[in-house]
Amino acid sequence: QPQLKLISCSxxxxxxxxQFDMPDVKAQLLMTYTLTEEGEVVVQEKLNVTEGAEVxxxxxxxxxxxMPRQYNKLTYxxxxxxxxxxxxxxxxxxxxxxxxxSNEYYPYVxxxxxxxxxxxxxxxxxxxxxxxxxxxxxxxxxxxxxxxTQDLDDGPFKDKKIGRHSGDxxxxxLTQVRVQQMQMGLGCVNSWGGWPQEQYLLRYAxxxxxxxxxxxxx
Length: 218
Known about the structure:
Elements: E1 5-12, E2 15-22, E3 27-35, E4 41-49, E5 60-68, E6 73-80, E7 93-100, E8 117-126, E9 130-145, H1 149-152, E10 174-183, E11 207-217
Antiparallel strand pairs: 1-2, 2-3, 3-4, 4-11, 5-10, 6-7, 6-8, 8-9, 9-10, 9-11
């Protein structure tokens, strides 16, 4: 994950603006948080890259947050019920789906990325009574899992003493929520070694993503 260095931060009435330098990928990130009268938070994530820089494609563009484990119920309007990705979604249809967060993880033999949903219109994580709802001005991608990223990916060398198999995983006392403009496709055109086709890659480029965090009560 690229290093973030805070350059500036300003507060004006109901708006917070923070600017970060990302020297590892030769880019700057501008984050704007706006609190509305209705208690919603509008989040804008704007990436400005260096023209001509050679940087590898991104895995995903968006944000993540952790909620307490009690928020373990999921309701969303998007593609489901099975996990799906930008290059593997035609078999999953738009609808309103519900699930337990624990059931969103698919136990592949080796732990890996899991539980993504595309074409999300709204995505709600709650405890049966209250929680948070996420929506945007365009279809987005979301997931909710009881694991952190490092629980599912031990890096390029796969040298974990434990956690190499899904049966080794222990659910954390949290729900990790990802809200993304896009995630890179799976590829899989030649079993599991091939990269996604060009249209499903998330190339290094200027990007702008806005979504809303809305308090939810049943």
